[in-house]
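User: I'm preparing a small set of examples for a lab meeting where we compare how different chains pack in three dimensions. I only have the primary sequence for this one, and I'd like the structure in token form so I can line it up with the others. Please keep the answer compact; I'll paste it straight into my notes.
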Amino acid sequence: MKYRKKPVEIEAWHFTKENLKKGVPRWVDHLPVNKNGYEELNHDISLWSQYGGEKIGGEIKTLEGKMTISENDYIIKGVHSELYPCKPDIFEETYEPVGK
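Assistant: Understood. Below is the structure token output for the 100-residue chain.
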């Protein structure tokens, strides 16, 4: 039997030096409002910059375990607000922009 992936809209952020200088989107480094009505820092992601911003990288704790994120990867927020990295070639084959 064959299956087709359901069309799903996701949020994604391109992890580049230029974008890192502009700032990390709030949905990447903060968890949604919890039961006490507060946002909290997302400790499942750790992004870093070294050598004056010359080298960037990080780690994301995903449902499948800890994954490395490299420059030019995309950080994707899944349908259950989970974060995971995606290589640029896979991202471009899988996703297309939807409005703004």
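A couple of notes for your slides: The chain has a mean pLDDT of 90. The radius of gyration is 15 Å.

User: Perfect, thanks.
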